[in-house]
Amino acid sequence: MIARALMHEPQVLALDAPAALVRALPGSTTLTLSLEFAESAESLPALAVMVLGAFVGSAVGMVVGAAVSPGGINVVFTVVLTPLMFTGATQFPWPSLDRLPWFQIVCAVNPLTYVSEGMRAVMVPQIPHLPLWLCLLVLAVAGAVAAEAGMRGFGRRAVD
Q1: Pairwise CA distance, residues 6 & 1, whole Å
Q2: What is the mean pLDDT of the chain?
Q3: First vs last C-alpha separation in the chain
Q4: Which of 160, 118, 124 is nearest to 143 (CA)?
Q5: All residues at 6 or more sequence positions from 68 whose CB lies less than 8 Å from its CB, including other chains
Q6: What is the pTM of this model?
Q7: Distance from C-alpha of 106 to C-alpha of 111, rounded to nearest angstrom
Q8: CA nearest 150: which of 69, 53, 63, 70?
Q9: Are residues 29 and 44 in the same domain?
Q10: Domain boundaries, position 27
Q11: Residues 86 and 129 reside in one and the same domain
């Protein structure tokens, strides 16, 4: 549907995510995403998890981008990103790992675990999950630490 809308090169493309409607509006080059759920106060925790998760992901990407040469980025996908996905509690609730404490510790180091658990806490609270306040706190601290490390790394790389 999006490809069909973009085929005519619209200047405005409005995406209404909950209704899955795509409208191409002539006259602008703006891409607009409207989220109806963002209008209610009960969606603020989900929005906070998404924003902090995006911040952490960007900050970690900055660290990786500063540490890896452009020729070695394909190795990063194999060595870094794939393990992050499988240890990020995206496919299982973190508390369900209580019989594998070593793997629970490995997952606890991964910031993606706190994004997954935070969204799980908001979207399906009946499934066991980490407390939302803990997820938000860890994401804020991890984002600040990774952003600082990434800025230092890029500063060193710019000087070299």
Answers
A1: 9
A2: 78
A3: 46
A4: 118
A5: 75, 76
A6: 0.69
A7: 11
A8: 63
A9: no
A10: 2-34
A11: yes
